[in-house]
Automatic annotation (TrEMBL):
Pfam families documented for this protein: FCD, GntR
Domain of life: Bacteria
Identification of the protein by name: GntR family transcriptional regulator
InterPro entries: GntR_C, TF_FadR/GntR_C, Tscrpt_reg_HTH_GntR, WH-like_DNA-bd_sf, WH_DNA-bd_sf
Keyword DNA-binding found: yes
PROSITE patterns the record matches: HTH_GNTR
Domain HTH gntR-type intervals: 8-75
Keywords assigned: DNA-binding, Transcription, Transcription regulation
Length: 240
């Protein structure tokens, strides 16, 4: 039993590390994920790596091609538009339920998540166009906490999946936010205020605007499939 638990723990750890590296842009869109190289990098067996990659296929963060192996997904603006709309619809419904069902504990935890987000450095030192990993995590945590009180596990799971997919796009087009004059911190303050005031209609409107503004920034920056490899951190030699 102990060996089985250890194996499950290792598999979860490798999956988490792979997920983090993919979202941070360690590999370019379309790049093949070599089992041998990954096994060496994560210091584990190819079996564990394959299991982790297979689970990430289910999360749509990895693409499995028959007889060819595992790849980082190639992104498209059309898909991002669909993902953004689905996220808006999903979270508009979720925030209405959360505002209705959330208790004092939820309010306190939401305020704490926002405080962490506010206090976390937004841009990477020396590169004001790149978001910090800590801020990205704090940002996701805040948005997850917003909907947590809806108490619908399926909705929450879908929210997390859509958040990951959006983050994957944002990593490759993160510099696009320079092209839009926006105050992201103020957007979060307004969303928080609406949730705490139990104003579901306002919170829904603000969440949609928050996501659609990012989409518009990426569109304005001219993000395309052709630009992914040449502009990616991996291609420029700055992969982490």
């Amino acid at each position: 039993m102990s060996k089985r638990i250890d194996a499950e723990t290792l598999s979860t750890h490798v999956r988490s590390a792979l997920r983090s590296d993919i979202l941070s842009g360690k590999w370019a869109p379309g790049e093949k994920l070599q089992l041998t190289d990954l096994s060496s990098h994560y210091q584990t067996s190819s079996t564990v790596v394959r299991e982790a990659l297979t689970r990430l296929v289910g999360d749509r963060l990895v693409l499995l091609k028959a007889n060819r192996g595992f790849f980082v997904p190639v992104l498209s603006l059309a898909e991002l538009k669909d993902i953004t709309e689905l996220r808006c619809v999903n979270e508009e419904f979720g925030i209405r339920l959360a505002v209705e069902r959330g208790d004092l504990a939820w309010e306190s935890e939401l305020m704490a998540a926002h405080h962490t987000l506010e206090r976390t450095p937004y841009r990477t030192e020396g590169d004001d166009a790149q978001l910090t990993d800590d801020w990205v995590r704090a940002h996701q945590a805040f948005h997850e906490k917003l909907l947590q009180a809806c108490a619908v596990p399926t909705l929450i799971d879908l929210t997390c999946t859509l958040s990951d997919l959006t983050q994957l796009y944002n990593r490759w087009a993160g510099r696009a936010t320079r092209f839009v004059n926006r105050d992201v911190a103020q957007e979060h303050r307004e969303i928080l205020a609406a949730a705490l005031n139990r104003d579901a209609k306002e919170a829904s409107k603000l969440l949609r605007s928050h996501y659609e503004t990012t989409l518009k920034a990426i569109e304005k920056a001219g993000f395309s499939e052709d630009s992914q490899t040449s502009s990616s951190p991996a291609a420029s030699g700055s992969a982490r």
